[in-house]
UDP-3-O-acylglucosamine N-acyltransferase (Winogradskyella alexanderae), 342 residues
Amino acid sequence: MKFTAEQIAGILEGDVVGDPTVEVSQLAKIEEGKEGTLTFLANPKYKPFIYSTKASITIVNADFEPDEALSTTLIKVDDAYSAFTKLLEYYNQIKLNKIGIEKPSFISDSSILGDNCYLGAFAYIGNNVKIGNNVKIYPNSYIGDNVVIGDNTVIFSGAKIYSDCRIGNSCVINSGAIIGADGFGFAPNDKGEYSKVPQIGNVILEDYVDIGAGTTIDRATLGSTIIRRGVKLDNQIQIAHNVEIGKNTVIAAQTGVAGSTKIGENCQIGGQVGIVGHITIGNNVKIQAQSGISRHVKDNEVLQGSPALTYGDYNKSYVYFKNLPKIVKNLNELEKKVNGNN
């Protein structure tokens, strides 16, 4: 699909400097731009590339003035980065704008699909499922019995949503994600064996939640595992049974959260963080990558290390840790001197 500079400027409320009829059909980095592509310049360190780029159109800030002749048509906007992000969203909407039901696929007679939905081939929709308007469910996805999915949600290929789970509006569930698998519940018996504890709860994703590829969110033993509005989970994250994650919290890849832990709002959690069960993490907490959290955390704390310390204490301690061999050597020499004097 092709767009002219004039059309793109209309979408972005920008001004064209150059040929308004030039067309583009692809996006590119400014240093890799070629004819027929659109790019942007927001970071000043990339400014030299605007004079050599072969991109047909470049989005720039309104105050940009070239020092040399340009071969690219400019679209001037208030904020080039935000404008390009808006364009990416628009492009993605067009690319993903599929409607209809592909064959073969299975839809239970007791299920309800909203308007303008897309169901890819080999997708399965179980009994009593309710799917909202403009939902996209890509091939090889599984939607279990009694699931509810809100409007404008996208479920990519191979995602699995187990029975009784609830998915809000405008959510994105990426390929390989599993929502509602059984929590890790086993009880030892007198034979030294483990008996499975039935997991009869569900998972609730509120609106505007993003779930990364390969991420697993376990259903609650009783009640619900709850992911609040605006939460963003990266790829390959494990969220255990009865966990609750507060609004607008973001968690990076390979983090694991054990059962019944409560995480507050607006937290930022780095990759490969391990969080024990049955603790509470406050609001606005920042946890650095590869940290281990084994205690309750107050609002606004910044933590690092395993077991995690406050960020300042960790940095101070690390200075000593790096010099530990030298410190031990000095202590041994001091001990010899003291013992020699005795």
